[in-house]
Amino acid sequence: MSAQIFSELRDAFSDVDAAVSESRGVFVIALQPSHLITAVERLKSTFAFDIFLDVTAVDWPDRPLRFDVVQHFYSTVHKVRVRIRMCVPEAAPTVPTLRPLYGSAGYMERECHDMYGITFEGNDDLRPILLYEGFEGHPLRKDYPKQLEQPLVPYRF
Amino acid sequence: MYGKPLPVVSVSREPAGTFEFITTKKDELVGWARKFSLFPYPFVTACCAMEFMAVSASAYDTDRFGAALPRFSPRQADLLMIVGTVTQKQAPILRKVYEQMCEPKWVMAFGVCATSGGFYQNYASLPGIDKIIPVDIYIPGCPPRPEMVIDGIMKLQEIIAQGKHLILNDKF
């Protein structure tokens, strides 16, 4: 079942500027951020990937394109997962938002913005969701000091 | 039958072996009364809550120490039990709850996260609630055994019994 849908996906994404592979039963598409919306629209409408599982990032401090933005999708029809991976530089860590396609993407993009500072173009509501107003920096970046605390209440000692 | 007056039984006013008054110190009397009427406010934030439920339930039964009836308003409570990890985002709420409690009040740090932050040392969690509010009794353990919690309650009762209980303050 998954072998068939994977070969269909392979054919469908052969024309896009994307590198496809398979990793531990997950179909992986590595592409440019500019191609994201067309790829996800195709996944959703043609291949019935109806659940947006998560968006997160990976920090590679030594790489010129420092961040990987990783998104996972699940199809309740085919029971398979797809991963989309995009590389973005530190100077402009921006990818398009998926909020028009998946309503739940708004919250996950807010979390990713909290933790890694990735901005999602088109998502105008990137207020802190797990962190608080006034928190400086992005704690899951590798250069955030491990023990740096930003207390809201002044310490007694 | 119901209209019948009840018989009046005369009671001797001086039974043998009793006394009519005792002498004690005011602090000892008030401390004795207060140590058996702790009204806890459970500020429960994490997994230690399971252990809190176990120690409150019938098997370990903190009601034996007069400390079982939780008040879910800090204004009616005199023992603040912080059960679990307190995050930096939660700290202003904890501070406000503590300030809303009336005197006399005591604070118990339940579990190692409330005591010192435990194994968390990062951007998110508070390294011990004593960084923001004063604490009277610390119970380590991840989570603490119910016996440890009961030991902590008894130690707190000792503190209360031996403490000063001011009835008159500088404003009166």
Task: Give structural notes.
The complex is a heterodimer of chains A (157) and B (172). By secondary structure, chain A is an alpha/beta fold. Chain A has helices spanning 2-12, 36-47, 105-116, and strands at 18-23, 26-31, 51-59, 67-75, 80-88, 94-96, 119-121. A five-stranded mixed β-sheet of chain A has the order 1-2-5-4-3. Chain A is elongated. The mean pLDDT of chain A is 87. Chain B has 172 residues and is α/β, with parallel strands linked by helices. Chain B is 30% helix and 10% strand. Chain B has a four-stranded parallel β-sheet with strand order 1-2-3-4. In chain B, helix 3 (91-100) links the parallel strand 2 and strand 3. Chain B is elongated. The model of chain B has no long low-confidence stretch (mean pLDDT 85). The A-B interface holds A 131-132, 135, 139, 144, 146-157 and B 88-89, 91-92, 95, 121-124, 126-127, 130-134.
Please tag this protein with its features.
heterodimer, A: 157 residues, alpha/beta, 5-stranded mixed β-sheet, 3 helices, 29% strand, B: 172 residues, 4-stranded parallel β-sheet, 4 strands, elongated
Helix content of chain A: 10-25%
In terms of quaternary structure, what is this? heterodimer
User: Mind telling me the C-alpha Rg of chain A?
Assistant: 17 Å
Structural class of chain B: alpha/beta
Q: How many β strands of chain B by DSSP? A: 4
The main sheet of chain A comes to: 5 strands, mixed
User: What is the overall number of helices of chain B?
Assistant: 5
General form of chain A: elongated
Radius of gyration of chain B: 21 Å
Strands of the widest sheet of chain B, in order across it, are: 1-2-3-4
SSE succession of chain A: HEEHEEEEHE
For the record, give the distance between the C-alpha atoms at the N and C termini of chain A, rounded to a whole number: 62 Å
